[in-house]
Amino acid sequence: MEVKLITKQNIFSYLRKGPWQDNYLAMYSSLFKGFTTDPELMVIPIDDHVAHRGDGVFEVMRCVNGRVYKLEEHLARLEKSAMKISLSLPPEYNEIREIINELIKLSKEKNTLIRVLVSRGPGSFSVNPYDCPESYIYVNCIRYKPPPTRFYEKGVSLITSCIPIKKSFFATIKSCNYLPNVLMKMEAIQSGVDFSVALDEEGFLAEGATENIAVLGKDNVLRFPKFKRTLAGITAQQVFRFAEELVKKGFLSSVMFDDIPKEAAYNAKEILLTGTTIEVVPVEKYDNHVIGYGKPGKIFKRLLNMLRKDMGV
To answer: DSSP letters along 285-297, please?
Structure first.
């Protein structure tokens, strides 16, 4: 084995840019107290507790035509997550809106994803958060790659996850400890489907790896799982409000948060998944049960159109 000693003087000769980094457009980092557009410089210290303990919180937002959709709602949820784990926000957070606007300018693109990550910061390799003198913030602007068109034209496939669901306290925090979510995505891919959804201990629907779910029953009531064991999705909440408008117009009988057994989902007229990156997508099959007529339904189409109009897509 050849032993290579990396120093400040030669480090750049060893850095290798991967093709996936072509989508990394700009970053702000507490480490440098500044911005960069070089993906090779978009790094974090190995002793930052977010790296070896998952000790941090984050948000992902859509920038559409140069405007961040639901910015204030995302920041409010980030602050709530940080408060729940007693994570103080770094001084730069007071300028988070200016930081995000500068990143959008530096990216030179109008349609991107903004990722805001607040970490406990560097300090040690222990589990003790008090070893970290100050919290850090990392904000990335990433090229947005829309989901496949087949998601919207034909629908997606869904299975029930075997991964244990998070306890309520952790499920309602958007923390950087996403191992259960990672395993759910792995499970879906290995099973040859698009998404998986978790159940709680009573057999009620919860959430996907990064998606909320809604079920339209034959009674024409659109039901969302209660936010007890799931993250309160920003997109899901907006879709809920749009569904309330559809109730007023007579397209839905009602919309509510409820306990939803998977058997009810099997017999649904429509199943919808919602999220920042996917917007709203229809489910064609759930655990090999064909949903409705096996094609995107009318409520899906109405809600997607309403959401996209609101986003300015």
So the answer is: EETTEEPTTSS--
d(CA 302, CA 214): 14
C-beta neighbour count of 29 within 10 angstroms: 21
Residues 136 and 156 in one domain: no
At residue 13, the pLDDT reads 84
Q: What is the distance between the alpha carbons of residues 8 and 63, in angstroms, rounded to a whole number?
A: 36
pLDDT of residue 208: 98
89 and 69 within one domain: yes
Q: Which distant-in-sequence residues (6+ apart) come within 8 Å of 293 by Cβ? A: none
Strand order in the sheet with 24-29: 34-36, 24-29, 136-143, 112-119, 56-64, 67-68
> In this predicted structure, what is the pLDDT of residue 8?
86
84 catalytic, yes or no? no
Same domain, 135 and 169: no
Q: Which of 8, 70, 80, 174 is catalytic?
A: 174
The predicted structure's pLDDT at residue 4: 85
Q: What is the pLDDT of residues 241-253, one digit of tens each?
A: 999 999 999 999 9
Residues 32, 56 share a domain:
yes
Last residue of a domain, one of 101, 122, 143: 143
In a domain, 241, yes or no: yes
> 123: domain CATH number?
3.30.470.10
Residues of the domain holding 90: 11-143
- 307 CB contacts (<8 Å, ≥6 apart)? 235, 238, 239, 242, 279, 280
- pLDDT for 49: 99
> Is the pLDDT higher at 176 or at 2?
176
Domain count, the chain: 2
**SS3 assignment for 51-63:** HHCCCEEEEEEEE
Cα–Cα distance for residue pair 24/114, rounded to 1 Å: 10
Segment 6-54, tens digit of pLDDT: 898 888 888 888 899 999 999 999 999 999 999 999 999 999 999 999 9
